[in-house]
Amino acid sequence: MKLEVMDKDFNTLFADIRKDLKAYITLKLEILKLDVYEKSSVYSSLLLYGLILLLVVFFAFLFLFVALGVYLGQLLNNYGTGMILIAVLYLIVLSVLLWRRKKIQNWLVNVFVEQIIQEDDNEREEE
């Protein structure tokens, strides 16, 4: 009779342990999922911020170079020549960018990785 009571106690004990372990694993997976959501949203916001900044800088340079082309056109008394000079300047910048492509790509990767590491460090400091 005592053996039956111990057997029931072990069975309920193992059932409780199994139930608690299942709940623990479920909660750990939920935490992992939420952590992935948080990190992906942080990285997405960084990427979106970078794209917005890039777009603003692009339009600033575009209008600056158009104004420079108009100014050169006035100096040369020919707006077409001023715009052609700006186009040549754009081609020079493009050729430099293409020539230094690998170095620029490595620099951008390093900047992005540093930003991610900094965000992770800031997140750990907050905890």
Structural commentary:
The chain is an all-alpha fold. The protein has one domain. 96% of the residues lie in helices and 0% in strands. It is built from three helices and no strands. Helix 1 runs antiparallel to helix 2.
The shape is rod-shaped
Note the main sheet: none
Q: Would you count the extended β strands for me?
A: 0
Structural class: mainly alpha
Write the layout of secondary structure elements.
Elements: H1 2-76, H2 79-99, H3 101-126
Question: Summary?
Answer:
96% of the residues lie in helices and 0% in strands.
Can you give keywords for this protein?
127 residues; mainly alpha; 3 helices; 0% strand; rod-shaped
